[in-house]
Structures are given as structure tokens and as C-alpha cells.
């Protein structure tokens, strides 16, 4: 691992990286702890990850490996994700006969109870093993309570994705998620005297695009007006060199007047293929400009997370080298852009 300034030493907010347990050992772990002071489990705290093939709740061993690693290395953990339409077991939405739940009061009650049990099992199992939230031994301090509920199209008056959650419970599933999560993480399983130890986020992608952004903001405003305990607004920012970097600033600006904190939750910047040296240099300037914007919004930002440690491990590697370190764990121009832009 190169002897370079750690990225997190150059910002006033924590800088995170999405990982699985592969990054908790060896040279990858060394690179991680030099540059980052926060992790997000890329897959192993998603709804499906908590259940075995029979549908029985049990924390995934990779989730525990990441929590152990964070606790032992003084890293914060940003949890991802309690409720989502994707990577969720089908049985959530079916009855005992395997038929889809409908919208009767009884069926809605079944799904509400599954939602509540899921959230309380997640919070309960983590606090059982790591201590109450807000105590020194428990590194979890934020969670994407809900992910990707805004519609990609403008065709619906409420601007919401037509998911199974939505079909059965309507918009109310979002309120319930935050209410149950707040109760579990910030009350029942919280350390005595700790004030909201786990910051609860709504999270979405394409929030740098104007239509999605206004639907997202309208939803957050409705939630706040109803007194729903949403603390934070997450911007995934899965972008490319074709995305004007100014759009990232507009996205942060557009939520700055709301009583919420914000986070960049899943940053990556694809170059397109083939990847050339010229594009990697352009990407260096892109990361520089993006982090200049993030530093300017430091007061609004809880954290900034990049969605993977090295290019080859990125879910978007096929679209061109999206991250700041290459597969040999070497710093790319993107790293230097981030650090030199300070
Ligand atoms: C992605 C992971 O990176 C992949 O490994 C997985 O196969 C699919 O999910 N938005 C999210 C993340 O909120 O959970 C997604 O992560 C990327 C898009």
C-alpha cells in the first residue's frame, strides 16, 4: 500500500467505502483503513441478507465480519438498507398459500407486522452483539431506512415507485419504516441517555436529475410535514463523466433549506469504455470538482461514501473504471483529484 495522505484526513466529514468482508483482511484492509474512516456493507445488510433459505432471521456472517472490523479499527458503520423493493425475499409479500398479499386490512396488517419484525430483528441482533446503539462498542451510527422509493417517471401524482411495498400499503409503508426504525434504533435498543444515536436516511439515485430531484424533495417535505422521523437525505450519485458536476451541487443545494442532514451515499464516476489515460485524467478533475463541492457543503453532509474500494470490485466496472484506486490498490488520478483539490 502506497504511503499517501489518507482521503479522510482531507475532509471535515467522514469518508466511507462500500465493502464486503473481502476488504477486511490483507492489503485491501490496509488501504481501506489508511484512506477511509467509515464503511457501508455493500450487500450484507440488505433485507435478503438477514434470512437463511428457510426464511429464518440470522445476521449474515459477512455483516458481522464487517461490524467486527469496524469496531476493531475505529471505523463508523453506515447501514444499508432496511427496506427496498430489490434484494428482498419474495415471502415478504405472499401469504401462507404462496399467493400475493392484497390490500385488505388483514393482508396489510400481515405486511406491517413483517416490516416491524424485520426492523426490530436487525436492531435487536446488532445491539445484542455490539452493545446498545450509541455505546462505545457499537460502530453503527446511520442507516438507509428506505431506498429508491421515488419513481423514475413523472406519471404518478405522488411521484412514488410502484413496488410491492407500495401496492400493498401505499405511501404509508415509508412512514412506518421510519417510525419502527426510530423506535428500534433510537429508543428500545439505544444506550441510556444517547440522543438519536442512529441517523435514519431516505436514499435514492439520479437525485442530480431535475425531475427525480423534485419528486424526491416533495416526498421528503410530505414526510417532514407529517412528523415522520426522517433525519437524512441520501444522494447515491452513480454518475459518469457526462454528468455535469454542477448538477451534484444543485442536488445538495436543493435540500439545504430542509431540516435534514444529507449524505453522498454511493459515489462512483464511470469513464465509459474503452478506458483511456485521457479519460482517467478527466476523471481526476471530476473527482476533484465533486469533492470541492462536498467540502463546500461540509456543514450539511453527514458523510461521503464511494461505492467500492477498487475498480474491479465495482458493480459498474463494465462501464469504465469508476473508483479512485485500481486493481493493484494503486492511487488513480481520481485519488489525487480528491486529495489535491483540498
Ligand atoms: C449493488 C451492489 O453494488 C451489487 O454488488 C449488487 O449486485 C446489487 O446492488 N443502489 C443501491 C445499492 O442502493 O444497494 C446497489 O448496490 C447499487 C444501486
Automatic annotation (TrEMBL):
Residues 1-341 form the GH10 domain. Belongs to the glycosyl hydrolase 10 (cellulase F) family. This is Beta-xylanase. The chain holds residues 357 to 698 of 1122 of the full protein.
Amino acid at each position: 500500500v502506497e504511503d499517501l495522505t489518507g482521503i479522510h484526513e482531507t475532509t471535515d466529514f467522514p469518508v466511507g467505502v462500500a465493502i464486503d468482508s473481502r476488504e477486511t483482511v490483507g492489503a485491501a484492509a490496509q488501504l481501506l483503513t489508511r484512506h477511509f474512516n467509515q464503511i457501508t456493507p455493500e450487500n450484507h445488510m440488505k433485507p435478503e441478507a438477514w434470512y437463511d433459505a428457510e426464511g429464518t432471521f440470522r445476521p449474515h456472517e459477512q455483516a458481522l465480519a464487517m461490524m467486527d472490523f469496524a469496531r476493531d479499527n475505529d471505523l463508523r458503520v453506515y447501514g444499508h438498507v432496511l427496506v427496498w423493493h430489490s434484494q428482498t425475499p419474495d415471502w415478504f409479500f405472499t401469504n401462507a398459500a404462496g399467493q400475493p398479499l392484497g390490500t385488505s386490512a388483514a393482508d396489510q396488517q400481515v405486511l406491517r407486522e413483517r416490516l416491524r419484525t424485520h426492523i426490530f430483528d436487525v436492531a435487536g441482533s446488532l445491539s445484542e452483539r455490539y452493545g446498545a446503539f450509541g455505546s462505545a462498542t457499537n460502530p453503527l451510527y446511520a442507516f438507509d431506512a428506505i431506498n429508491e422509493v421515488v419513481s423514475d417517471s413523472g406519471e404518478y401524482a405522488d411521484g412514488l415507485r410502484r413496488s410491492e411495498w407500495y401496492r400493498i400499503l401505499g405511501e404509508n409503508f415509508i412512514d412506518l419504516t421510519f417510525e419502527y426504525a426510530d423506535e428500534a434504533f433510537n429508543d428500545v435498543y439505544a444506550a441510556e441517555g444517547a440522543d438519536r444515536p442512529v441517523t435514519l436516511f431516505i436514499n435514492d439515485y439520479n437525485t442530480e436529475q431535475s425531475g427525480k430531484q423534485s419528486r424526491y424533495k416533495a416526498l421528503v417535505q410530505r414526510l417532514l410535514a407529517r412528523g415522520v422521523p426522517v433525519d437524512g437525505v441520501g444522494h447515491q450519485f452513480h454518475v459518469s463523466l457526462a454528468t455535469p458536476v454542477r448538477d451534484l451541487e444543485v442536488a445538495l443545494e436543493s435540500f439545504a433549506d430542509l431540516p435534514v442532514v444529507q449524505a453522498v451515499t454511493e459515489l462512483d464516476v464511470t469513464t465509459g469504455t474503452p478506458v483511456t489515460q485521457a479519460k482517467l485524467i478527466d476523471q481526476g478533475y471530476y473527482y476533484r470538482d465533486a469533492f470541492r463541492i462536498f467540502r463546500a457543503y461540509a456543514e450539511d453532509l453527514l458523510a461521503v461514501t464511494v461505492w467500492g474500494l477498487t475498480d474491479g470490485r465495482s458493480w459498474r466496472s463494465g462501464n469504465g473504471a469508476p473508483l479512485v484506486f485500481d486493481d493493484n490498490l494503486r492511487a488513480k488520478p481520481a485519488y489525487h483529484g480528491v486529495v489535491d483539490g483540498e
